[in-house]
């Protein structure tokens, strides 16, 4: 059997651009495939800049705790493409098996007949084909980029549409202002479909999203207005007009995950799943996991390069709002258990590196910048180190993640260090692969 990676390599040659936002090419292919997007399980559609994956992880955990079969489509993957497509089953799903993925790829390739189409578009068609043929109670569908012209936006009438926090990212595709980016994300909000808008960090994003939601003519849940979430006495308290939930704190660290958990509950209620048992919400919110979102690497090949009592954390955050949320989480860690914070960072040249790194000034003791040889758009390590120094951080560079961790492990610290690897989801994938702990 031809491996899926070989077919993916052929898909890359079908369009000169990796990203070319449009719906027409995918609609043509879906028509040739018999319109599988019209035979999907009920959909909850999620867009936003930060928190999409975590919000979906919370929803999936709650739904699966209730015994429901949940399909999931997310991107990008960290180590293997198969992470993008989770096939649901009652009580717990699985990453798409290689045999099913190859079959779907082959059928999409044949139906496309060599016509121009991006990799994300044709692989989204393959995912829809798989989801339409495997029974499930619900499909949690994450946009790839933006919303209005994202390939996932061919779904006409989801159960609910959700927009997580919007911030500055992918400006070259979505616009040079928060308002323009929010307008693209708001493109998934549809007439007659309930909508959920997470608490927003930017007033101009909220204003755009509120106007778009009002035009749908359906009920809207707006974070901080129609639903509220916060910590009280070591518990997560969620409340809206439909009632209150007293839940355990999320397993996913950081107060930003409280926002994502609250948004997931509002989304489930908006989609008609609000009457699931309290036990499902308790176990789901308390137990949800999502790789490379402040993930503790307690074992593995890279973890072994540090002293046994050191902490090693991994996060894929890469934009300014992500940097602020991550720095706030590190400050919480420091308050609970003081340790020297040491960062290992690699970033793409398209990202606002200064905006990401500045929140760590006065918090991190040092930054070690490393290259990402697998990414042609990566900033050189020396450039990242220079940006870190200009942002008020002590910085140096190393040739690899292994070299950086070996150097940190050999240094003398006043107490065991807390090491944070961050700056890119691509880096996070490389780290999980090198550590021998890929997502499952």
From TrEMBL:
GO molecular function annotation: ATP binding; dihydrofolate synthase activity; metal ion binding; tetrahydrofolylpolyglutamate synthase activity
UniProt-listed PROSITE patterns: FOLYLPOLYGLU_SYNT_2 (PS01012)
Family annotation (Pfam families): Mur_ligase_C, Mur_ligase_M
Record's catalysed reaction(s): 10-formyltetrahydrofolyl-(gamma-L-Glu)(n) + L-glutamate + ATP = 10-formyltetrahydrofolyl-(gamma-L-Glu)(n+1) + ADP + phosphate + H(+); (6R)-5,10-methylenetetrahydrofolyl-(gamma-L-Glu)(n) + L-glutamate + ATP = (6R)-5,10-methylenetetrahydrofolyl-(gamma-L-Glu)(n+1) + ADP + phosphate + H(+); 7,8-dihydropteroate + L-glutamate + ATP = 7,8-dihydrofolate + ADP + phosphate + H(+); (6S)-5,6,7,8-tetrahydrofolyl-(gamma-L-Glu)(n) + L-glutamate + ATP = (6S)-5,6,7,8-tetrahydrofolyl-(gamma-L-Glu)(n+1) + ADP + phosphate + H(+)
Domain Mur ligase central, first and last residues per copy: 46-267
Keywords: ATP-binding, Folate biosynthesis, Ligase, Magnesium, Metal-binding, Nucleotide-binding
All copies of domain Mur ligase C-terminal, residue ranges: 312-424
GO BP, one annotated term: folic acid biosynthetic process
Protein name (database record): Dihydrofolate synthase/folylpolyglutamate synthase
Enzyme category, top tier: ligase
Function: Functions in two distinct reactions of the de novo folate biosynthetic pathway. Catalyzes the addition of a glutamate residue to dihydropteroate (7,8-dihydropteroate or H2Pte) to form dihydrofolate (7,8-dihydrofolate monoglutamate or H2Pte-Glu). Also catalyzes successive additions of L-glutamate to tetrahydrofolate or 10-formyltetrahydrofolate or 5,10-methylenetetrahydrofolate, leading to folylpolyglutamate derivatives.
Pathway named in the protein's UniProt entry: Cofactor biosynthesis; tetrahydrofolate biosynthesis; 7,8-dihydrofolate from 2-amino-4-hydroxy-6-hydroxymethyl-7,8-dihydropteridine diphosphate and 4-aminobenzoate: step 2/2; Cofactor biosynthesis; tetrahydrofolylpolyglutamate biosynthesis
GO CC, alphabetical: cytoplasm
Names of the cofactor(s): Mg(2+)
E.C. number: 6.3.2.12, 6.3.2.17
Protein species of origin: Alsobacter metallidurans
Protein family (similarity comment): Belongs to the folylpolyglutamate synthase family.
InterPro entries named in the record: Folylpolyglutamate_synth (IPR001645), Folylpolyglutamate_synth_CS (IPR018109), Mur-like_cat_sf (IPR036565), Mur_ligase_C (IPR004101), Mur_ligase_C_dom_sf (IPR036615), Mur_ligase_cen (IPR013221)
